[in-house]
Amino acid sequence: MTPNTHTTHTTRTTPTLSLDLLADMLRIRRMEEKCAELYGAGKIRGFLHLYIGEEACAAGALRALVPEDSVVATYREHAHALLRGVPLRAIMAEMYGKAAGCCRGHGGSMHLFDADRHFYGGNAIVGGGLPLAVGLALADKLQGTTRVTACFFGEGAMAEGAFHEAMNLAALWQLPLLFCCENNLYAMGTALARSQSQTDLCAKAASYRVPAVKVDGMDVRAVHEATRQAAQQVRAGAGPFFVEYATYRFRAHSMFDPDLYRDKAEIEQWKQRGPIHSFTAKLKAAGELTEKTFLALDARAEAEVADAAAYADAAKLEPIEDLLKDVYTPQGTS
Amino acid sequence: MKISYREALRQALREALTCDSRVFLMGEDVGRYGGSYAVSKGFFEEFGPERIRDTPLSELGFVGAGVGAALGGLRPIVEVMTVNFSLLALDPIVNTAASLRHMSGGQFSVPLVVRMATGAGRQLAAQHSHSLENWYAHIPGIRVLAPATVGDARGMLAPALADPDPVVIFEHAQLYNLEGELPDNWHCDISHAAVRRPGTQLTLITYGGSLPKAMQAASELAGEGMDVEVIDLRVLRPLDTATIAASVRKTHRAVVVDEGWKTGSLAAEIMARLMEDCFYDLDAPLARVCSEEVPIPYAKHLEDAALPQVTKIIAVVKGLLNV
């Protein structure tokens, strides 16, 4: 992979991997649709940021990692949590604010964490995960592991000082850190060109002498292949790598956003390139997917989501007596 | 044995680096330069660049990296040059380190130690002289320490590193050259306030760089026949209310000496707690000596006038004792 170029993917995906990627995207889509419905029903509250339209990024990228790798994500992270193996029941219960949630209802939609799966959230400060990821990668390097830390962030975070400080530190110390930029073109309601003087994001990474590549974030196989190659280099000790996924969110920024800043035609254009239906069409055309298999995958995703919502609905709330329990680590537990 | 506060810090750091391979020191000019207050002088040569890690001028980045390294299994000690600069790193300390454990439902502890210089008195003016300890003491999820003696400078680091949660340590810049007797047993806890001078008529409550001033005031007052107790808070969060209240129940009068500005100060918090716990034990209104409400100025006479001083403390104490 040549740094700072737009790649065309070379297809290394096997039919099994293709179906896995499709299944992953369907699980995300059905989960997010259910979240929107539950928000409308008042079951989920607070801020809720949906990933609909961006599924190929998490699906393709996360299948390029191994379970020991660390993942740091943003407040639009339900998909990343799910695909890292956090049970959907625990994710849904978290959004319901229940004790069975992955964070016992303390975090909600924006703060999903899972220590056993090296999933470090769930950061709702834009750019906040970047310095954290630098530290995780530094710890891995100093301890001689072969772990890669993948840090997801949006293009909006690249206007934050945290991005530039993290980039400099990661490059200076040659850390095993994979920068995963989900460029959905809007930092909440502000378009990239209206917020950053340099809109070529790979050029910013390259200015820190970090190799960078831009891929079509609506093409799950391209995402997977680019991330796989980048992760391979990082794991081999070549220092950090920056991958930009050119993507788009089909829904508003959050449930409070009336979405007045985007042209309807623009949204429609991107929807034509929707990651699930375009990939489905490709697989069918290649004879790798039948309608029957597709329906079965979709039904499985639907069933998982329905089960999780029912579980969350029935789950218990954390007792108020435990309110202060985890502000500090109980003595003698670490 | 008499040693300096700086030397006590150095001994504590060297011990931590020697005894635990997970410990490393990171910050601006901690390595080749030797530390802006010479606390880590020679460590770069002794422990190498991996463990005495010079960072760019990047407080947000390297304090955040400290949080991540702590999560990743190391025991980072992050040095921030002054509390004023630490404002650039409030996000990783407050939004991440302090919140992570509770926000994640108890999954992640952050065993991070952040050390920083604080305080005025060296004519460094308004961007290097402030006392913002109370900003940090306001935050649940972290522990805040203010070693004010040679013993605490020697003893507080080990328990801070053993603490599974984030600990912020404030070293008052005026204390680095302070010489004191290192007690034979300098091992200490990081939970309790300490009575530095027993007394019966009034309690002076203070911490950090104001402790020597309070001790001096108590000594001069003793010369005039007034018996004043001095309490060193040591731990600014969580506050050891029990020790303070026990003292005030005995003396029935209290003055808080705090280099922070009066408005919203730690002094205000302590006074509020005394009102909650000791109202009926008081024989006089509570009082405080804080910094004047002004960015600390450069000119010596103005800086002196802005800060708590021994003469001011004595005047306030005498006022309460009706002398």
Give a short overview.
Chain A has 334 residues and is an alpha/beta fold. Chain A has 12 helices and 9 strands. Chain A has one domain: Rossmann fold (3-Layer(aba) Sandwich), CATH 3.40.50.
Task: Please tell me about this protein's structure.
The complex is a heterodimer of chains A (334) and B (323). Chain A is of the alpha/beta class. Chain A has a single domain, classed as Rossmann fold, CATH 3.40.50.970. Chain A contains 12 helices and 9 strands. In chain A, the strands form 2 sheets. Chain A has a 7-stranded parallel β-sheet with strand order 1-8-9-5-4-2-3, sandwiched between helices. Chain A has a two-stranded antiparallel ribbon with strand order 6-7. In chain A, helix 9 links the parallel strand 8 (212-216) and strand 9. Chain A is globular, with a radius of gyration of 19 Å. Chain B is of the alpha/beta class. Chain B has 2 domains: 2-181, 3-Layer(aba) Sandwich (Rossmann fold), CATH 3.40.50.970; 194-320, Rossmann fold (3-Layer(aba) Sandwich), CATH 3.40.50.920. Chain B has 13 helices and 14 strands. Chain B has helices at residues 5-19, 43-47, 59-71, 83-86, 90-103, 133-137, 150-155, 157-162, 211-223, 241-251, 266-278, 300-306, 310-320, and strands spanning 2-4, 23-27, 52-54, 75-82, 113-118, 143-145, 167-172, 179-181, 194-197, 202-206, 228-232, 235-237, 254-261, 287-291. Chain B has a 7-stranded mixed β-sheet. In chain B, strands 9-11-10-13-14 form a 5-stranded mixed β-sheet, sandwiched between helices. Chain B has a two-stranded antiparallel ribbon with strand order 1-8. The longest helix of chain B has 15 residues, at 5-19. Chain B is globular and about 60 Å long. The mean pLDDT of chain B is 97. Classes of the chains: A alpha/beta (334), B alpha/beta (323).
